[in-house]
Amino acid sequence: MNASGRSLELFFVDGRPDGMLTAEVFNWTGHVLRIPRTQIKQGLERPETNHTGVYVLIGQIEGIATAYIGEAENMGHRLRQHVSGKDWWDEAILVSSTGDMLHKAHVKYLESRLVEIARSVGKIALENSSTPPRSSLTEAALANMESYLETLSMVFPAIRVDMFLEKASKPKPESDTAKAQHQTFELRSKKLGIDATAELSDGQWIVQAGSKGRSKWVGTNPGNTSYRSLISELLSNGTLEAHGAHATFTKGYAFSSPSAAAAVVFGRAANGRTAWITSDTKITFAQWEEQQLLKDPVTP
Predict the structure, then answer these.
(1) Are residues 151 and 183 in the same domain?
(2) DSSP for 36-75?
(3) Which residue segment(s) compose the domain that 95 sits in?
(4) 205-249 per-position pLDDT tens digit
(5) Contact call for residues 115 and 88 (beta carbons, < 8 A)
(6) Which partner from 8, 57, 225, 232 sits 20 to 30 angstroms from 65, CA to CA?
(7) 13 and 146 belong to one structural domain
């Protein structure tokens, strides 16, 4: 049993996955409301929009993905101002609490931390001119807000908001069971100057710091533009450091799959299941995966 599992409830207000929705987590006092701009009138009729909270506007400015993070004691009133004052955003994410329990100091702290996190991740441009100062909170309130943010970081990706999702790997204490689940893989090509190492850990494919790959996309398949954009993103936020035709990972980075990792390292489409080989037994990931499935299940 996974003791750290959480239960997330998404409610699609009008039955459409791209429409207005609410998100709540069991035993969490927070409440998240996503309002597409096309449904702003209906959204502002909901009572939680008048709560004290922090909000995120998401859209594009001159073709560049952009967001704005703010706070308000009445988010509905502030959102009405942004309808006329900001014409670039396409959806608003409103974060509050059930029973309107957050107060001004709480949301000012959340606003500051969310701006800090978004700038650190570097996935999207912020219209915020600067990072607002954190409000002064008691030790207990500070711990509560950090716990609130931890749960919020799980909710945001579930509603397709990944601007706060830090994919750089972070070391953490490991149990003997967790260590047993780790496997190291390598991807090397002397001809291309590629020398990368990755670790499969807790379901994440993490390319390790120091790994070397290409510094730009050389693939010709127009269907892989997302990888081209990802390489540019990793270069701009410092995860990759370019050295001519090659680039070095300055820190570990978690990819969604071995093929995604191989594509970024090679700078072109690649089958990660056969490109990555285990560092010890020198078999492909596909072969290693098959061996794992043939092993006897562990008795609880």
Answers:
(1) no
(2) EGGGHHHHHTSGGGGSSEEEEEEEEETTEEEEEEEEESSH
(3) 8-158
(4) 899 999 999 999 998 876 567 788 889 888 988 899 999 999 999
(5) no
(6) 8
(7) yes
* 241 and 277 fall within a common domain: yes
* Angle separating helix axes 139-158 and 104-121, nearest 10 degrees: 50
pTM of the model: 0.67
Instruction: Write a three-state SS string for 122-140.
Output: CCCEECCCCCCCCCCCCHH
Tokens of residue 48, six digits: 């939680």
Answer yes or no: is 2 within a domain: no
How does pLDDT run across 115-159, given as a tens digit for each residue?
Answer: 999 988 888 889 998 889 999 999 999 999 999 999 999 999 999
Distance CA(111)–CA(69), nearest Å, equals 7
Query: Tokens 């441009």 appear where?
Result: 125
Residue 231: count of CB within 10 angstroms of its CB: 22
Alpha-carbon distance of 181 to 198, in angstroms, equals 14
**CATH number for the domain that contains residue 98:** 3.40.1440.10
